[in-house]
Design a protein that fits this description.
Blueprint (H helix, E strand, L loop, with lengths): L1 E5 L5 E6 L6 H8 L4 E7 H17 L3 E7 L8 H13 L7 E6 L1 H13 L5 E6 L2 H7 L4 E6 L2 E8 L4 E5 L8 H18 L14 H18 L14 H10 L6 H18 L6 H12 L10 H9 L4 E2 L2 E9 L2 E8 L3 H9 L2
The structure holds nicotinamide-adenine-dinucleotide (NAD) and glycine.
Nicotinamide-adenine-dinucleotide (NAD) binds next to α2, α4, α5 and α6.
Length: 350
């Protein structure tokens, strides 16, 4: 088993090993004494792993109930959030108790946001079951739901108390979802760990190593800047255009697929501005191809521009772009919003 400590204001561990869901209750009980618990999961993950985790919680002495919602990004909204809060009230959950997110990034973000806000904050654990959630969203404490047309527009920074990555859960994950997670791995490689790129090829040879390498990269940025004002912004590589593409697709494209396209776009902008050489976008595209990820943007600059203008990363009249200098190193470049149409055209030109 690999254990990484996330050195936030309130540090916590991320454990990585196959089989962790079978002993989830036992591992959570090491961090806090058995109490009332609400397991939050979507219908797909519930059918696969819900009973196993609930039984493990009961065996460890937790008084656990389960809240299930329909899978998919469409559920990451205020309505599901309200239903979850109603459920927590009905369970009479108190500040001594815990929420447990079992699932992908949608479940983690939704459950984390409820944990951040219910009673002004209760503890929660992340039990990620997608590759994307293991390598990225379960760590770092960004929680949110979407508002109409605005990705992650309502949220909070709220760190979990424990992260359990059971890599055996990836056995049931469809290949498209594996690729989806590999996009965030390629992002981490480009911003901080170029030597990790060979690990991101399909078929993945070692998920424990892959998750550990990625959590280590994420930890490095999050521990320096928990609230995303300086260093953590590097983790937004590919997300400026990526979030716009995701919203424009009506969430039919997966988050990682949109980040993949967004990374190509940012790399071309970097090349256009002279921040990197021509071989950098080419190498990123090669890695995305090896992970079976899309690289072509289905939308034009005008459509993208409308959404990027409303992105929460905009600060006044500037948007800070994360642009690659070379593989393993990026630069934060604040650029005025009036240059956005020209930049997007540059990014969309091969
Ligand atoms: P997801 O949670 O929708 O999961 C993808 C699909 O896989 C779902 O249909 C789910 O039911 C299914 N699934 C989950 N685990 C499974 C398993 N083991 N076997 C079979 N099916 C399984 O999506 P995701 O890609 O995990 O997460 C995307 C979300 O994460 C987006 O909302 C994105 O904004 C968010 N995100 C958050 C952060 C953060 O730092 N908080 C970082 C990156 C992404
Ligand atoms: N996924 C970007 C971040 O956690 O900051």
């Amino acid at each position: 088993m690999r254990t990484l400590t996330i050195r936030t204001q309130r540090p916590y561990n991320a454990l990585i090993a196959p089989g962790l869901l079978d002993r989830a209750g036992q591992e959570i009980a090491r961090v806090l004494s058995p109490c009332r618990a609400v397991l939050v999961t979507d219908d797909t993950v519930d059918a696969l792993y819900g009973d196993k985790v609930l039984e493990s919680l009961h065996r460890a002495g937790f008084d656990a109930a389960k809240f299930t919602f329909p899978h998919g990004e469409e559920s990451k909204n205020m309505q599901t959030y309200q239903q979850l809060l109603d459920f927590l009230c009905a369970c009479d959950l108190t500040r001594k108790d815990i929420l447990i997110a079992l699932g992908g990034g949608v479940t983690g973000d939704l459950c984390g946001f409820a944990a951040a806000t219910y009673l002004r904050g209760v503890r929660y654990a992340q039990l990620p079951t997608t590759l994307l959630a293991m390598v990225d969203s379960s760590v770092g404490g960004k929680t949110a739901v979407d508002l109409p047309g605005r990705k992650n527009a309502c949220g909070a920074f709220w760190q979990p108390s424990l992260v359990l990555c059971d890599t055996a859960a990836l056995d049931t994950l469809p290949e498209r979802e594996i690729s989806n997670g590999l996009a965030e791995c390629i992002k981490h490689a480009v911003i901080a760990d170029a030597e990790m790129l060979p690990l991101t090829r399909l078929p993945v040879a070692d998920y424990v190593e892959l998750a550990a390498r990625n959590i280590a990269v994420k930890e490095r940025f999050v521990s320096q800047d928990e609230r995303d004002t300086t260093q953590r912004q590097f983790l937004n590589f590919g997300h400026t255009a990526g979030h716009a593409i995701e919203a424009l697709s009506g969430y039919q494209l997966r988050h990682g697929e949109c980040v993949a396209i967004g990374m190509v776009l940012a790399a071309r902008i970097a090349q256009g501005l002279g921040v990197c050489a021509r071989d950098v976008p080419a190498a990123i595209i090669q890695s995305l191809n090896a992970a079976r990820l899309p690289i072509h943007c289905p939308y034009g600059p005008d459509a993208l521009c409308d959404f990027v203008m409303h992105d929460k990363k905009r600060r006044g009249d500037e948007i800070t772009w994360v642009l690659p200098e070379r593989l393993g190193q990026c630069r934060l470049v604040p650029l005025p919003v009036d240059r956005l149409p020209a930049l997007l055209r540059m990014g969309l030109t091969a």
